[in-house]
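Quick check before the chapter quiz. The format below is the same one you will see on the exam, so make sure you can read both the input and the output lines.
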Amino acid sequence: MKVLIVGDIVGSPGRQAFARVATGMRSAGKVDFVVANAENAAGGKGLSGKTAEELFAGGEERLVRPLNFAPEAPGRGVTTVKSASGVSVSVISIIGRTFMRPYDSPFHAIDGLLNGRNALGPVIIVDFHAEATSEKIVMGRYLDGRASAVVGTHTHVQTSDERVLPKGTGYITDLGMTGPKDSAIGCDLESVMQTMIKGLPAKFDVARDDVTLEGVVVDIDERTGRARKIKRIREQLGK
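Here is the expected output.
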């Protein structure tokens, strides 16, 4: 099974890039399953029902939020769905704590889920939304052999450390961003620059130029759930 995992989608440029590339790859038989981080899909901030419907055209019709959010938070941290070939795939979201809000421990939260993994599929994809590269690296090693892939998101800057870890987990510290690369992590450069120089608040609009999709394709053994290969991708769509 080949799984396309797409980095943080930003605004309408990112949504359009995702729909175009993901739909094309699935139609061409290059991937069997699609996972995407959509935290910034609606104008660079969050996700709305309308923007979710637009994204569903290029991926799976499922949404998850971080597993280690407070129990009162709407939504769920894991979903298990069937791929086109009938294999159950579980997608899990967790969020980090280093340089972030004081969420519950992502390590304890995912342990509690994986220890009762009979309800999960053989293929397990973990999106670790975190700021610190060290925290992401530790999580990758912590889940090595227990997840098919552990991918980092949040910084919007793609890293070049993709690899299959010793026990068979595909890993990358950050998938990167799907949206306008001529920007400050998706936002208009001028407004961000003025805020940083003058220290005054400003509205950050989504940039428009050099639209690019970033992420990975992970080749996973459907029987064992182990990754065979992970390949970093970057598809430039232009303005």
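If your answer matched, good. The helical segments are 11-27, 49-56, 106-114, 133-142, 189-198.
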